[in-house]
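dumping this here before i forget
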Amino acid sequence: MKKITTVIVVLVVAILIAWDLIAFGSGGVDATISNVIKESAQKYLMIPYSGGVLISHFFWNGETFVPPRIRYYALATISVAALVFSFIYTIPTTAACVAGILIGRLLWPQPKKL
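structure:
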C-alpha cells in the first residue's frame, strides 16, 4: 500500500508541475498555481493556516503530550475558530501560517520512527 501511495504522490506532484508550466506558458505568472494560492490566501486565511498545519504534520517529527482524543477535537475546534476569526479580523497571511505550524506541531505531529 505504501508503494501505491508513493506513486500517487509522485504523480500528483508531476501533474501540478506540468500544469504550472503550461499555465505559465499560456497565461503568464498570473495563471500559475503559486500565484493563485497566494491571492486566495490573502482572501481566505484558512489556506495559509491549513498549509501551516500540514507543513508541521509532514515535516516535524515528534511526540506530543496531548492525548489523541483531545488532540483531534482541539485541532478541529481551533481550526473552526480560525476560520471564523479570519472572516471577522484581518491578519497577515504569515501569522496565519505560523499559527497553523504551531497548532499542527502541538496537536498533529508525525510520529517518530522506532
